[in-house]
Amino acid sequence: MEFKTLRNIENSFKQIRLFTFVFAILCFGVVGIVVYKSYSFAEEQRQKIYVLDNGKSLMVALSQDMSINRPVEAREHVRRFHELFFTVAPDKNAIESNVKRAFNMADQSAFNYYKDLSEKGYYNRIISGNIQQRIEIDSVVADFNNYPYAVKTYGKQFIIRSSNLTIRNLVTNCQLVNSVRSDSNPQGFTIEKFNVIENKDVETVNR
Predict the structure, then answer these.
(1) Any residues with CB less than 8 A from the CB of 85 and at least 6 apart, and which?
(2) Is the pTM of this model over 0.70?
(3) Based on the structure, what is the number of domains in the chain?
(4) CA 128 to chain centre
């Protein structure tokens, strides 16, 4: 009778050890699944960019390879430079403010062109004649197969006087090089060797 009791106790210990072993395996399995799922969730969240829209709503945008958007950013950089540089109001402070912002996006070649126009009295005539000038970009053609990127820009200038409106064709070329992104240069490019290759009147409309 005593021997049977000992056998029962030994069997009970074996069952306890088996149950403990199975429980430990299950715990390790659950921990492994949790870790894997957590890592997968973190990777998925890393692919999202959360954007605060005017401090109100939280929007989610998927992140992409930066090189995919580079051509779009390049064309936007060139477009914005031309808008700042060639949009002129009959106000000295407004002119200086715009060209300073444009200079942050280009090298010395843009300043040299501005200086040449200033020395010829171009901006003084704009101010004294109360002339408005704006630009519309038709297209920005860039070669992204070779670096630095060669860019040609086609647009129209509208010279607005009290008596007439002059429409002028504008064609420029330049080179784009990668630069450091900043508040004044969000696309991270610098315009080099900026040059105006065509700037001529095509139409004048009396007002």
Answers:
(1) 98, 99, 102, 110, 114
(2) no
(3) 2
(4) 38
